[in-house]
Design a protein that fits this description.
The protein is an alpha+beta fold. Helix content is 40%, strand content 20%. The model is unreliable at 57-67 (pLDDT under 50).
Amino acid sequence: MVLRLAAEQGGTRVTDVANRLEVHKSTASRLLATLESERFVERDPMTGRFILGSESLGLAGSGGTQVSLARLAHPALKALASSTRTTVNLGVLSGTEVVYIDQVDDPRSVVTIDWVGRSTPIHCTSMGKVLLAFASSERRRQIIQGRLVAFTPRTITDPGRLEAELDHVRESGIARSTDEYQVGLNGVSAPVRDATGEVVAAVCCSGTSLMLGPGNFEKVETATLATAREVSRLLGR
């Protein structure tokens, strides 16, 4: 929506964005500042309005290329990592796996693992559950009825139980993974939607059970959901 407004003849103003997105003017200003810093929009020196920037030319279709999507979302991911003190990833669906296209580590972390470019199973990670929950019914059925490998004792391998959890993800808009892919590693994820409403990616906060567990799951989920919605707004949702 924001880029669509900027593409209109004459560009857009902060108040226009605030009104169309139904958000406070300060929120609209922050969204435009993020887009401007990444060169997706620029301010017309003559009118003061925001128009499309150079990076917008690299967006392909409604969701954009993976590189453009990662660049667009990165500032929001960075803020999320700082506020939750977790590792934040952005991932997309590729076949029966989740591919990580961006990562931001908590600057206070001592040990980090770079997941960018790697892939993980779809049925036992929080990002995978989000992407699977909102995938087409045919793809979802193929994966659920396929071989669900157990990576830990807590990996869900029963098709009926996994389907029930995916139903909950679609209702709540959030997914959890607790010791399901790696013992001691937890995650929460939320969907990123493009201008058409289609889920094109997922935002994930992950950490050890000491950093992310029952004591702060809900707080981190709220922050993750807010960030996913912010990135979705940047994509025109």
